Input
Amino acid sequence: MIPRLKPFIGFEEIAALFRPVNDAVQKFESAFAATFSTRHAVAFPYGRSALWAFFKAMGIEGAEIVQPAYTCSVVGHATVLSGNIPVFVDINLHDYNMDLDAFRKAITAKTRAVLPTHLFGYPMDVDAVNQIVHEAENRFGQRIYIIQDCAHSFEAEWQGKSVVNAGDGALFGLNISKQITSIFGGMFTTNDDEIAAKLLALRERSYSEKSWSEKLFRLFYLPVATIAFNDLIYGFTYWLQNNTGLLRQLTDAYHLDEKIHFPPDYLKRLSPVEARVGLEQMGKYNTIKSRRREIAAMYFDQLKVPDTWVMPPNVEGATYSHFVIRVPNRNEVMKLAAQHGVQLGQLIEYSMPHLPAYQKYSSNNQYPNSLLCSQSLINLPIHPGLNQKDLFKIIETISHI
Output
């Protein structure tokens, strides 16, 4: 079974678990900032925890935070749990990012921040976002922060420039499903000295060190996950995922879409163990980015799909965290692919304002594009560890469904 996702982990990361590094977290932050050409990088236990910390550090509470209707639920969780109000914007059906006209209309006198999300690695038009926000700031007489959600995109490029530095800050998630990983973890980057100082001060007074048991859990998590994703083992992992509740029990504490909550350790600092793995991953980042683009190019060139399917756009500057195709019969397609040994993903399988916990924030809008994509998108494996045999199998399977 070819997995839908797989961390690009080797012996170096496993060895890093047990190799002491002085000031590992600070060194990871410095390497991250250097890689993404930004002045500051501040590490957190999760990307959602970094967003929550930003709101708290900047004193943003009771405000409207503009964000996509079609995005990971943790963005909404961080907004609500920080005491703010998510304002959802429907997406377009081209690159699945926020519709710019709807985005412009969503900004009000109560807006304090906007979250352009470069979904699936597709860069949003950051020039247009900045212009819209600048006009709103002049109209309402207040600062509106622009925080790029780069959890999928990392450094996707708009008009040849990285989206990371196109606003006041950027968010990254670093769990094993992301393009690079520090086991768990998140990062907030910024060129604003004031924002960085306030984030560091809040982390110092509000975040505590992980317990020895939490550190031990992370020490063993990566080797276990690496084994679970092994080519010879993954068939059994897939069976466990689909036929038992065991794996769900392990993940529910960290991520629930239908409930507004945070993991129990969201106020625990990134551990040195995680930082050491992150340091090793930084050295592989350019390879990871290039390989994802190469695989996407191969899919664009060789996939043959039915007329009723909608291929993703081939966008210059995209980093392809996911290769998404819109299909009319998602469950059937996923089942047929699995029968041929190819696991397909269905991220994201919900529309935020249609979730029960978020319906009160829907403003009675319908968000039709978000709802459509939540019901019809599949994503093909695109992780860098795929070899040519795997890719030919994926292409052959998808082209004959």
Remarks:
- The mean pLDDT is 95.
- The two ends are 17 Å apart (CA to CA).
- The domain at 285-399 is CATH 3.90.1150.10 (Aspartate Aminotransferase, domain 1).
- The first helix runs from residue 11 to 16.
